[in-house]
Amino acid sequence: MPPPLLERKAVQNLLAVLGSAGFLAAVPILFYVGMMVWYEDMGGPLNLVIVPVGSVFLGLVISITLYLPLSRLREHRSRILSWIVLGSASLPVGFWVYLISLHAPQAPTRDQLFTLILMSGGFYLYLLFGFLVHLLWLAGLRWWVNRSRSVETQPQH
Prior knowledge:
Blueprint: H1 9-39, H2 47-76, H3 79-87, H4 90-102, H5 110-153
Helix pairs in contact: 1-2, 1-5, 2-3, 2-5, 4-5
């Protein structure tokens, strides 16, 4: 039986935000550790503090400002609407790539454009998988609460 506090939707949303923020914080940290191992360079010792703290901050900001409203919108309105909103997040990223290519001192090479598009796509997948983790946390918590309720209401033989 889950704790009674867990039956409140606000607590479930808070745990989902923390779960997705943890995922969003873990990805840059793992990439940074991979770069440290691959290049055999620690960087500065302050990076071992800045990267994790910045990643946790970024994860919390994205989870609170983007995923929480989208999940609430998904609950109360059309399910497809939240995916459309998240999909439209790729538009500013594409616009960013376009602006960088315009303000370059010389025309960007094919490799530079490919790198920008690859980075934009990676950031979009980062946001998309973070949203999926958020929704999985919500679904898992609600399944657990509903399952325990149904077990409690079943008659005992």
